[in-house]
Amino acid sequence: MMDSLISDSSPAPPPDLEDQSGARSRWWALPLRLLISAALLAFLAVRIQDFETAELLPEWSSDNGRWLALAAALTFAAFGLAALRWQQVLASLDRPARLSRLISHTFAGQVISNVLPTTIGGDVLRVRRLARDNGDPHTSFASVILERLTGWIVLPLFTIVGLGVNSGFRGLGWPTRLAGLTAVVTLVILAGIFVLGANETLGRRLVHGQGWRRSLTAIHLGIVRIRNRRTAPITILSAGAAYQGMLILAAFCAAQALDIDEAGLTFMLAFFPAVLILQVLPIGIGGLGIRETTLVIFLSPLGVADERAIAFGLTLHLLTLTVSLVGVPQLALGGRGGKR
């Protein structure tokens, strides 16, 4: 049905994820986000009495280096799994794509998203490059929206599993409530988005919409094409679980590199999904400040020094930045070779 509303042969350019005029009117957003990140980090530094710089990092050894190298390798593998998840979404939308091209676009997008101060710039790049490959901007846009949303679905499930496995984490007070509330709110919001997106009447009304309406149209397009494929949701969610699980393992290895033994695997399952969710809120730059504050909240009841929790967050940020730089060649050259 939706194919009759949005013609694949339309010469329209790939849709942007943000309206350009709207972006110009929000010139203040970037300085504000920079200010918020700086303010949160400053608050953490002031909050800690007798802040000890020496506590930020452990005494270095070869074991720390091996844990950190493993964390980097797992982060690299996670980016590849993100491309695999994207491929599964495209296959469900009847637009199969070569994994090598999607890996190239994914790594190029990671450079934009993690190195530059932008929220969705990497996704815009992926939409444009994929549309250039397949000549179908609308499905390309829908695939990126659905790939993002389906990846978020599994994070609350990890939290539920982690809290269920380790009963001790269910009585930590505010940290437990924050993790649980983040999981519940995320599931409710995603359920609402998919319910609205599955509504055919709403889909017809929003077909020419802009901004958030265009995103709902993309979700509707995806649901219409996927709903009759019984195995598609399982395949997509499995790829999403593998991707998020790899990020959790990478964070576990980074914690071991910093000698934060309290942050074991069950802790990562229960609490780190909330960190992944909260750090992408568009109220900071690259999650700076938000990630570190959340980790201080979660690790303090376990006896981890606030300085060490802050170092953990900053290490994760630098780890992601470093691995993202692998995508610089793809950013510079990866747009070549597709259809014109």
Distance between the termini: 27 Å
**What is the total tally of β strands?**
0
For the biggest sheet, the summary is: none
What is the global morphology? globular
Rg calculated over all Cα atoms: 21 Å
Number of domains: 1
Q: Report the β-strand fraction as a percent range.
A: under 5%
Query: Based on the structure, what is the oligomeric state of the protein chains?
Result: single chain
What is the H/E order? HHHHHHHHHHHHHHH
Q: Low-confidence segments, ≥5 residues, pLDDT <50?
A: 1-23
Secondary structure category:
mainly alpha
Mean pLDDT over all positions: 79
Describe the structure.
The protein has 340 residues and is mostly helical. The chain has one domain. It has 15 helices and no strands. Helix 7 (137-165) packs antiparallel against helix 12, helix 11 packs across helix 12 and helix 12 (265-278) packs antiparallel against helix 13 (290-299).
List keywords for this structure.
mainly alpha; disordered N terminus; 340 residues; globular; 71% helix
Strand-helix topology:
Elements: H1 2-5, H2 20-25, H3 29-47, H4 62-92, H5 99-115, H6 121-134, H7 137-165, H8 174-198, H9 200-205, H10 212-226, H11 232-257, H12 265-278, H13 290-299, H14 306-324, H15 328-333
Summarize the structure.
The protein has 340 residues and is mainly α.
